[in-house]
Amino acid sequence: MNDNHNIAGKLEWIGVRESKGNVRSINSVFAIEELGLEGDKITLKSSKKRQVTLMQMEHISVILSLAQEDNLDKINKIQYYFKRNLLISKYNIQNLKGKYFSIGDAKFFGTGDCKPCKKIENLLGKRVLDAMQGMGGITAIVVESGMIKVNDKLNLEMK
Description:
There is one protein chain. By secondary structure, the chain is α+β, with helices and mostly antiparallel strands. Helix content is 21%, strand content 35%. Helix 1 (57-66) crosses helix 5 (126-132) and helix 4 packs across helix 5 (126-132). The longest helix is centred in the middle third of the chain and has 10 residues, at 57-66. The chain is globular. It starts with 8 loop residues before the first strand and ends with a strand.
């Protein structure tokens, strides 16, 4: 029998969104309880549901395929355009909604869906926006501060 609680995901990429709308790729970041990721523009706001955004790494190739996107410059920078903080592989992040999970030293709680918005359409076009429906990722809050870094494991918490 396969116990889903023993399956660990992997943090593949970290991005912090600067106030100008740019996304900066970094290798590690401090997750701040009740605020978000250090240096991310969301920490300037007081969000109770959307402090961190996560997206499924495996969905990127599906989205590009469905959108019939072949612009290599766009494809090579695609994670920046999605405006998400964390790209996760090897774990279905939809299963994190309503649950506690850890990445590195930080603990999070999945709060809901992160639907693609008009900004995505403006940056990537309607085909990508349409292809992204249902694969925009999830939102989470930081419930315990800690460092996270690329290649850290994502684990479901038994809380």
